[in-house]
Amino acid sequence: MPTEKAHGIQIMKMCEAFAEQGVAVDLLVPRRFNNLQTDPFEFYKVRKNFKIIWIPGPDWVDIHKIGFFISTASFLIFTRIYLLFKKYDIIYTRESLTGILFHNFILEVHAMPHRAGQWFLRMLRRAGLIVVITHSLEKEILRLGIAPEKILVLPDSVDLNEFAINISKKEARQKLGLPMNKKIILYTGSFLFYDWKGADSLIEAADKLGEDYLVILIGAHPHELAKIQERYPKTKARILPFLKRENIPFYLKAADVLVIPNKAGDPISEKYTSPLKLFEYMACQRPIVASDLPSLREMIGEKEAFFFQAGDSANLTKAIEAVAGNQSLAESLSANAYAKVQNYTWEKRVVKIIKRWN
């Protein structure tokens, strides 16, 4: 912590929101090493209304699955030792293995394990409350025999203030040095590392669009940039690396169309994901083109987004042209999405959790 991955945003924003509701929050995280040697509060633009405690342990998460398991288990063991000397009311966690050493905890589930065996069921039973981000996750947990009153379905959310910048599309482009005479199509998030996120579909669509379009993808890691250059040496898409958090709202405001190109065939993509980018897109009042998948349909419908066949770059191209070429449609989708996202803030999310917790 911090991390370039989206879960870091979610964790920090949730802690901030809990603290704003009067909860005394200590965020316990494993000490890991990366290139982001900076203050997490500054990195995520989060208020310092809670504490961060770094728990020591081996940093072997990149050494096969065994290394990841050892690192996770060590973190939990050292956390257990640390908490022997601390008083607390409850643990809120996204790590199901927490149930091995703790009983008084709320478990937030973002995906089902490949094999939901007895150990996972035991962890679910030990949790005081289970928060899931999609109804598909709820259904699968119910099939395991967990009582429905123990499950709370809450999609991810957004900090509306973070994206409420008073700037026009023209001003945003001037600030970023982007062309005024192009229709800008934008994607933010992970790339080839998570194939199901479909960044390659958008890169392929970029080469099918006319010269009056500029496709920009933000968030590539250095090793991904090399792979993209190798796979798409002549792509017309502009690929940008991971950018500081405060830059993202300006890029979103500069765009004509925002894209969520998730692929079909992966359970996370089809059923489990509740993309942070979706809520950020909605908050920026720009039209959304999205893959037609159940996970995304849980949050948005035909009034809030224009859907295309997941994984089909040709169909994605047509969808982009349909929205970018119809100002009335673009404005309608943007307005409806913005109205809907008002109900999905981190503050409202934690209030619902606190009510169920108490």
Question: Outline of this structure?
Answer:
The protein has 16 helices and twelve strands.
Topology:
Elements: H1 6-20, E1 26-30, H2 40-44, E2 51-55, H3 64-83, E3 91-93, E4 105-109, H4 118-126, E5 129-132, H5 135-143, E6 151-153, H6 160-163, H7 169-176, E7 183-188, H8 199-206, E8 213-220, H9 222-231, E9 238-241, H10 248-254, E10 257-260, H11 267-272, H12 276-283, E11 288-291, H13 294-297, E12 306-308, H14 313-324, H15 327-341, H16 346-357
Parallel strand pairs: 1-2, 3-4, 4-5, 5-6, 7-8, 7-10, 8-9, 10-11, 11-12
Helix pairs in contact: 1-16, 7-10, 8-14
Structural class by sheet pairing and helices:
alpha/beta
CATH hierarchy, class of the largest domain: Alpha Beta
Helix content: 40-55%
Ranges where pLDDT stays below 50 over 5 or more residues in a row are: none
Tell me the radius of gyration.
Answer: 21 Å
Describe the structure.
By secondary structure, the protein is an alpha/beta fold. The chain folds into 2 domains: 6-157 and 346-357, Rossmann fold (3-Layer(aba) Sandwich), CATH 3.40.50; 160-341, Rossmann fold (3-Layer(aba) Sandwich). The chain contains 16 helices and 12 strands. The chain has helices at residues 6-20, 40-44, 64-83, 118-126, 135-143, 160-163, 169-176, 199-206, 222-231, 248-254, 267-272, 276-283, 294-297, 313-324, 327-341, 346-357, and strands at 26-30, 51-55, 91-93, 105-109, 129-132, 151-153, 183-188, 213-220, 238-241, 257-260, 288-291, 306-308. The strands form 3 sheets. A 6-stranded parallel β-sheet has the order 9-8-7-10-11-12, sandwiched between helices. A 4-stranded parallel β-sheet has the order 3-4-5-6. A two-stranded parallel ribbon has the order 1-2. Strand 8 (213-220), helix 9 (222-231) and strand 9 (238-241) form a beta-alpha-beta unit. Helix 7 packs across helix 10. The two termini are 29 Å apart.
